[in-house]
Every structure is written in structure tokens, then in C-alpha cells.
Amino acid sequence: MRKLLNTLYVTSPDSYLSRDGLNVVVKVGEEEKFRLPVHNIEAIVTFGYMGVSPALLSLCTENNVSVCFLSGQGRFLARVSGKIRGNVLLRRQQYRYADDPDKALALSSVFVSSKIANCRNVVQRVIRDHGSPDEMPEMVSASATLAIRQKQAYQAQTIEILRGIEGDAANQYFGIFNNMIISQKEHFNISNRNRRPPRDPVNAMLSFAYTLLANDVQSALETVGLDPYVGFLHTDRPGRASLALDLMEELRPYLADRLVLTLINRKQIGINGFRSPGGIGIQMTDETRKEFITTWQKRKLDTILHPFLEENISVGLLPHVQAILLARYIRGDMEAYPAFIMK
């Protein structure tokens, strides 16, 4: 099992990243703020960066450390990684599966049905922790509908039908998202899922969490030798990591949505941590983003019992475990891909 290493998040836009021997060095102006050995990290994520030296990029690619560039608002810009590694036979089989409508549909159905199941589990958890079924009729109704959509997704006959089921399930889920916000309800609410730019604090946090998750999933896919740009549910598009978007579907509710709800309900983040520059969209302040990332990293260190492996693993290893299982399925070592469905 791969050791869970750290992701270095550089949030100051004045930071410059450079190399000193085998160390990553972060400077602001001429002052050194931070340094650590490159083999202690697996990825670097920068926000609104000043620059990265070519020497550091070389060090990172040589050591299989990816460097991801995001805007100050968390929008993905670019990603630098080393040479493609892994079994070429695995990637060739992946491309065959992607070109086979039946194989692509079979995997896509698992991704979507598992995502819906995990959305329903988020709803059920809130009902269990914060009330009773009699007190939350809208939540109970949505949960029942999601259970139906989960079965329909698994049995969908075409990709188009599957996408329609996924869309309806998403509408049901985000339609009662406000009901899962227990604290600070006067400031945090969502009328629908929106982005580019997000128009409220909840959507801003969800988009940010999904960006972080997508980066982790893409790194995991590259580690096991799969091509993150060739997916089954998400169609090919230049520059889009379609397989990463596929695989992260089942992980969104557990890793991203629950984190956003926790940060709001525990009042770790307040409404003063957001701004609207120029009146266009909502953005997190630097302090809010740092708090979000700190909580994200701490969450990765939690331990859970993986439902398929029946082993205790760190939460941060979930993308890597699921990538390994997906690769084993595509190679033909498993009869079916065992998606992650949280308890």
C-alpha cells in the first residue's frame, strides 16, 4: 500500500518556489518561509502564484511530484507532472473499454449509482444526527427518491438515460441541501448548484472542495498507470481529466460535501470569510481558504474501514485505493469494479 504523503498548499500569491538540492523552498521576497525534502510530499498546489523555478519543476517531475496551478479563487489553470509511467497494456485496455459502449456504460452506471448512494447516506446521516424522520419530511422524501434513482442508474440502458437520472438525483440532493445546514442558516444557503463563478458561499466552498478532490484523484490515477484524460462517463475534451471526473463522482459526497457541511455547522468558517470582488461571484478570503485547506488535510489523516478491502486505511488514501481497484478491474483481475459506498 502506498504511503500517504503530504500535499504542499501554497496560498500566498507573493510566494516563489525554488529548489535547493533535494529541497522545495518557499520564499516571499528574499525571505525564506518554508522548506522540506521533495520526497516528503506527493504534490504541490499553488494559488495565484508568483512563480516556480524551472529547477524545482525538474526536481518534482524526477520524483513524481505533481505541481498544480490554481487561480487565487481556486479555479484550475494547469498541472505539471513527470513522465507517464505504468503498464502500457493497462492503458491500451482502458482505451478499448472507453471505445466500447457496453463497457463504458457498465462502469459509468457504477460511478453514478455509487455517487447517488453516497448522497443519500449524507442525507440519512443528517436525519440521524439532527432530528427524526417525523421532523424532516422533506429529507425523508428526498432520501426515498435517491434510493429509487440509485437503482435506476445501475440499470440504465444508455449513457444518455444515465445522465438524465444523474441530473434528476442532483436536483433532489441539492434541493434539500439547505436542510442539512444546521448552523448559520441566515448566511449559508443554496438555491441551486452553480459555478464559474459561484454565486453564494456554499457553492464557492463546494467548487473549491471539488477542485482539491479532482487533483488528488488525478494524481492517484497517474500513480497506477491509468490515463486520467480518457474517461467513460465524461466525454473526451482537450485538457479535461475525464477519468478523474468519473472516479471522483463516488467520492464527492463523502470527502467534499460532508466537509463543507461540517465547516459551516461547526462554525469553523463564517460569512465574513467571503467577498465579492467587483460584484461578480463569491470568493473565499485567504484566511478562509487556509482554514478550509487545514481541515481538508486533517480529514485525510482520519482512519476508516474500507468496505471492500475490510482494512483500516487513511481517508486520504481513498482515491489511491479506488484507482488501484479500477486498474485491477480494467486489467481483468476482478469481475467488477467495487465502488466506494460509505457507511
Number of helices: 10
CATH superfamily of the largest domain: CRISPR-associated endonuclease Cas1, C-terminal domain
Task: Give the overall average pLDDT.
Answer: 87
Estimated share of beta-strand residues:
15-25%
| Biggest sheet: strand arrangement | 1-5-7-8
C-alpha-based Rg, rounded: 20 Å
- In oligomeric terms, what are we looking at? single chain
H/E topology pattern = EEEEEEHEEHHHHHHHEEHEEH
- The level of helicity is 40-55%
Strand tally is 12
Number of domains: 2
Query: What structural category do the secondary elements indicate?
Result: alpha/beta
Apparent shape: globular
Biggest sheet details = 4 strands, mixed
Task: Explain the layout of strands and helices.
Elements: E1 6-10, E2 15-20, E3 23-28, E4 31-37, E5 41-47, E6 51-52, H1 54-62, E7 66-70, E8 76-80, H2 88-99, H3 101-130, H4 137-154, H5 159-175, H6 201-224, H7 242-248, H8 252-265, E9 274-275, E10 283-284, H9 286-300, E11 303-305, E12 312-314, H10 318-331
Parallel strand pairs: 1-5, 2-6, 5-7
Antiparallel strand pairs: 2-3, 3-4, 7-8, 9-10, 11-12
Helix pairs in contact: 3-4, 3-5, 3-8, 4-5, 6-7, 6-8, 6-10
Report on this model:
- The protein is α/β, with parallel strands linked by helices.
- It has two domains: 6-80, CRISPR-associated endonuclease Cas1, N-terminal domain (Ribosomal Protein L15, Chain: K, domain 2); 88-331, CRISPR-associated endonuclease Cas1, C-terminal domain (Four Helix Bundle (Hemerythrin (Met), subunit A)), CATH 1.20.120.920.
- It has helices at residues 54-62, 88-99, 101-130, 137-154, 159-175, 201-224, 242-248, 252-265, 286-300, 318-331, and strands at 6-10, 15-20, 23-28, 31-37, 41-47, 51-52, 66-70, 76-80, 274-275, 283-284, 303-305, 312-314.
- A hairpin with a 7-residue loop joins strand 9 (274-275) and strand 10 (283-284).
